[in-house]
Design brief:
Order of helices and strands: HEEEEHEHEHEHHEEHHHEHEHH
Number of helices: 12
Radius of gyration: 20 Å
Helix content: 40-55%
Strand order of the largest sheet: 1-2-3-5-4-6-7-10-11
Largest sheet: 9 strands, mixed
Number of strands: 11
C-alpha cells in the first residue's frame, strides 16, 4: 500500500466515522439516554449489562460470570476511552474460553467512556484522582455485591496508569494487580525502542517500503538516538508503522478501521446508540487531564504486581515495561512475556495468560 492509498484510507475512515456519529446523534435525539437503567442479561458469555451511580455519575459496566463463588476481577480498559469487552467477540474468546470461567469479571466503563459517556462531562473533570476515587467505589460495590473481602485488579494499556496508581493507594481493596501492556514514559523513548525493533522486523522481511516510511518520521543521530520529526502529528503515522510490523493491538491486525472500528461497530454488547457514544467518549478522553498522566518511576506498590507483556508489543514497548518493572517496589512482583503476542496477550494467547494469572489467585 503506497502513501497515497494510505492517505485515502485515512480520509475514508474519518468520513465513515463522521457519518455514523451524525446518524447516531440524530437517532439519540429521538430517544432517551442509552445508558442502562436496569440489569440486562446479554446473549454473550453470561454477561449482565448494568449501571451503578458512582460519586454522582452513573457508571456503566458489563459483569461476566459463571459462578458467584469465583474470585472477582475489576478490568480497566485502555485508550484512554476504549472499553474492550467487545474484543471477546472479535477474537472468539467468549465463554467457556475466557476469564469469565475463572473470575467474575467487571468490565468497567469509567466516567466519559462507553456506557458512561455523557455530553455534559468536561475533559478536565476526568483526572487520575477522579478515576481513582471512582474505582475505589466500584471495588466497594463489587465486594459488597459478591460478598468478597477483596477483589483482583487488571488494567490494559493506558488503563495501567490508573491500575498501578491503585496498587499504590488501595491495598485494602485488591489482592494483586495485573498490568497488561504496562504503560511507562512518553515521547522519544517510546519511538526509539520501537524503531530499532521494527527496523529489524522490516529488514528480515525485506520490507524496504515500510522501513523507508518509518525513516521519514524520525531523525537518527550519529550515536543512534531517535528523535521524532513532528511530535504533534506522529501518532497516526506511527500507528501505521506498528500495524505493518505486527506490533500494534494484535500481531495479526493490519488495519484499525477493519479490525477495531468495524468489529466494535458489529459487536453485540453495545446498542447502536451506545456504539456512537463509545467513539464520542474516545474523543472526549483524548482531551482529558488523565491522558497527560505519566507513571512515576519511583513506584512503591502495596500489593503484588504482575506484568503481562507481548514480545511484539511496541504500542507500550515491552522494553519500557521491563524498565519500570526493575524500578518499582512491591511486596512481590512478576513479569510474564508472551512470545506470540503484541499489545493484547489476553486475546492473543488467552489460555496461557489465564494460566499465568491463576498462579496468583488465592
Amino acid at each position: 500500500m503506497n502513501a497515497k492509498q494510505m492517505k485515502m484510507n485515512k480520509n475514508m475512515y474519518r468520513i465513515i466515522i463522521s457519518l455514523l456519529i451524525s446518524l447516531g446523534v440524530f437517532c439519540m435525539s429521538c430517544c432517551k439516554s442509552t445508558l442502562v437503567e436496569k440489569e440486562e442479561v446479554l446473549t454473550i458469555e453470561n454477561t449482565i449489562k448494568t449501571g451503578v451511580e458512582i460519586n454522582g455519575k452513573r457508571n456503566g459496566m458489563f459483569i461476566s460470570m459463571t459462578d458467584e463463588k469465583n474470585p472477582v476481577l475489576l478490568f480497566i480498559s485502555g485508550g484512554p476511552g476504549v472499553p474492550e469487552i467487545w474484543l471477546n467477540e472479535a477474537y472468539k474468546n467468549e465463554y467457556p474460553n475466557n476469564i469469565s470461567k475463572y473470575f467474575t469479571v467487571c468490565y468497567w466503563d469509567y466516567i466519559g467512556e462507553g456506557l458512561s459517556y455523557d455530553s455534559k462531562i468536561k475533559p478536565e473533570e476526568i483526572t487520575l484522582q477522579r478515576l481513582a476515587d471512582d474505582a475505589h467505589e466500584v471495588a466497594q460495590y463489587l465486594k459488597k455485591t459478591y460478598k468478597k473481602e477483596k477483589i483482583y485488579l487488571m488494567a490494559h494499556s493506558s488503563g495501567t496508569n490508573l491500575g498501578l496508581y491503585l496498587a499504590q493507594t488501595c491495598p485494602e481493596e485488591f489482592y494483586c494487580y495485573f498490568g497488561m501492556g504496562q504503560d511507562y514514559l512518553k515521547g522519544d523513548r517510546r519511538y526509539e525502542e520501537g524503531y530499532y525493533f521494527m527496523k529489524d522486523v522490516f529488514e528480515k522481511a525485506g520490507n524496504e517500503k515500510a522501513l523507508k516510511q518509518m525513516n521519514k518520521l524520525v531523525n537518527i543521530s550519529e550515536e543512534g538516538k531517535v528523535t521524532v520529526k513532528k511530535p504533534s502529528s506522529i501518532g497516526k503515522d506511527w500507528e501505521e508503522i506498528l500495524l505493518m510490523a505486527g506490533c500494534a493491538t494484535t500481531r495479526e491486525m493490519r488495519s484499525d478501521m477493519k479490525d477495531i472500528f468495524f468489529k466494535q461497530m458489529g459487536c453485540k454488547c453495545y446498542t447502536f446508540g451506545e456504539k456512537i457514544n463509545y467513539w464520542k467518549g474516545k474523543k472526549l478522553l483524548s482531551k482529558s487531564a488523565y491522558r497527560e498522566y505519566v507513571v512515576n518511576p519511583d513506584v512503591k506498590a502495596k500489593i503484588p504486581v504482575i506484568f503481562i507483556s507481548g514480545f511484539y508489543d511496541y504500542t507500550t514497548p515491552i522494553t519500557l515495561s521491563k524498565e519500570l518493572y526493575e524500578k518499582l517496589e512491591a511486596p512481590a512482583k512478576y513479569f510474564y512475556t508472551f512470545n506470540n503476542s503484541a499489545h493484547s496477550p489476553l486475546w492473543e494467547e488467552n489460555e496461557l495468560v489465564i494460566e499465568a494469572m491463576l498462579k496468583h489467585v488465592r
